[in-house]
Amino acid sequence: MSGVGTGYDISCTTYSPDGKVFQIDYAGKAVENSGTAVGVRVKDGIVFGVEKLILSKLLEKGANRRIHTVDRTIGLAYAGMTADARQLVNRARSEAKNYRSTYLSTIPTRLLNDRLSLYVQTYTLYGGYRPFGCSILVGAWEQDGPQLYMIEPSGISYGYYATAVGKAKQAAKGELEKLKLTEMTCREAVKEVARIIHYLHDDVKDKDFELEMSWICPESGHQHQAVPESLLAEAEEAAKASLVEDMEDD
Amino acid sequence: TTGSYIARFLPHFASNAPLFFTMNNTDWMTKAHSMGTSIMAVRFAGGVVMGADSRTTTGSYIANRVSDKLTPIHDSIYCCRSGSASDTQAVADYVKYYLNVHAIELGDKPLVKSAAALFQRLCYENKNALQAGIIVGGWDKKKGGQVFTIPLGGSLVEQPFSIGGSGSTYIYGYCDAHYRENMTKEECEQFVINSLALAMARDGSSGGVVRLVIIDEKGVERKMIPGDQLPRCVFEG
């Protein structure tokens, strides 16, 4: 079978004539097959939301978390291959732990982002390794304010006010651009993120999904915690209601 | 032997009583340089005042009467060194190097706590080999002025002010009685000068001049008060 990168896409050690390393691009495709993950940085904290596509009715609700805590005030959400992301979560925890052991302080988010980016990039250099098949969102609360970073399989990372990865990332980013993030509070952001994920979920292609959300805000003591069940339920109700409204408008 | 040479030609040294000075006493060639020392650091709202005496001894010989025991670790972080001169210099050099690397990766000035943590790591992990009592002081934008003390065993304690070195034993009462919270920079300077003058007067291993380092947001200022200009605070009869 011939495709775009035929002949130049076997391993990370080969460039294509137009300067691409196709294995990294293919890793990105693996991310795009996964449920959407959204992260926003607002006035008083960080909110993560993940669309967990339910593969089987036998799966226990609430198990199989997609958002992880790296250090008390740092959270990590992802889209892509779950097993790969778990490795990165472990690496992030290790970096945070070692920093704390050496310097007796929380690792600055920018530093954690740099270290993880370097680690992810390393796996794009060798023929014996494949790139990580996940994009990760790193969010934290610091004394200067909240911070949000996103790291792609290539190892490129940027700081964001809001970003999305996974299936509906383009559409999600479009919705996020409409929001006034610097004036929003975390409570409001929870509702918005829930609404966006519900809105962008493709009922036709995908089956049911479970919404997992976490936040770092004054209400959580600036620690990374799951959004309280009552607030999550409220947000999902509002999201579903607004969907119905949209349909009725049509 | 040279000892009996003296006994023959200087008869009043002929007795068996121990001699204060003998020709084969080469302490100064072999004994480690010790910084008997009086050191001190006090924090105020906008920074810290750090002070030290200037005497380094080998046994009873004063090897250096104008030593500088206040060592820069980074732009706004200094340390006071007491104990073995070589040990504390080596440790301070390591911390300076590690902190420099850390600051470059961080892209920002390091925290005083980070410097103190590095000192503690080295002093604790090598406690059997080292004789080092260190006070770390400085300013950072997160918490302002801070003083951390790392005594011999390698523990780490943050304090509003800290005293160290052999001379400090003589001024615990004085410092406890005269320290007040929320002193101004000038009051802190005077507190340090008075305390160190008293320690230097009573401790044989401390003396010389008082060196001060004042660190705040704007930077570092160094001062030196010669011994004869120190306040006279010991009863002289």
Attribute tags:
heterodimer; A: 250 residues; alpha+beta; five-stranded antiparallel beta sheet; 6 helices; 37% helix; globular; B: 237 residues; 13 strands
Describe this structure in words.
The complex is a heterodimer of chains A (250) and B (237). Chain A starts with 21 loop residues before the first helix and ends with a helix. By secondary structure, chain A is of the alpha+beta class. In chain A, helix 2 packs across helix 3 and helix 5 packs across helix 6. In chain A, the strands form 2 sheets. Chain A has a 5-stranded antiparallel β-sheet with strand order 8-1-2-9-10. In chain A, a hairpin with a 2-residue loop joins strand 5 (134-142) and strand 6. Helices cover 37% and strands 24% of the residues of chain A. Chain B has 237 residues and is an alpha+beta fold. In chain B, the strands form 3 sheets. In chain B, strands 1, 6, 7, 8, 9 and 10 form a 6-stranded antiparallel β-sheet that branches. Chain B has a 5-stranded antiparallel β-sheet with strand order 11-2-3-12-13, with helices on one face. A two-stranded antiparallel sheet of chain B has the order 4-5. Chain B is globular and about 55 Å long. The interface between A and B is small, with 9 and 14 residues.
Quick summary:
The complex is a heterodimer of chains A (250) and B (237). Chain A is of the alpha+beta class and 250 residues long.
Q: Indicate the overall shape of chain A.
A: globular
Q: How many angstroms does the end-to-end distance of chain B come to?
A: 45 Å
Number of helices of chain B: 6
**Order of helices and strands of chain A, N to C?**
HEEEEHHEEEEHHEEH
Secondary-structure class of chain A:
alpha+beta
Q: Describe the main β-sheet of chain A briefly.
A: 5 strands, antiparallel
Strand content of chain B: 25-35%
The end-to-end distance of chain A, rounded to whole angstroms, is 43 Å
Helix fraction of chain A, binned, reads 25-40%
**Total strand count of chain B, please?**
13
Largest interface: A-B, 9 and 14 residues
* Strand-residue proportion of chain A: 15-25%
Number of helices of chain A: 6
Whole-number average pLDDT of chain A?
93
Low-confidence stretches of chain A: none
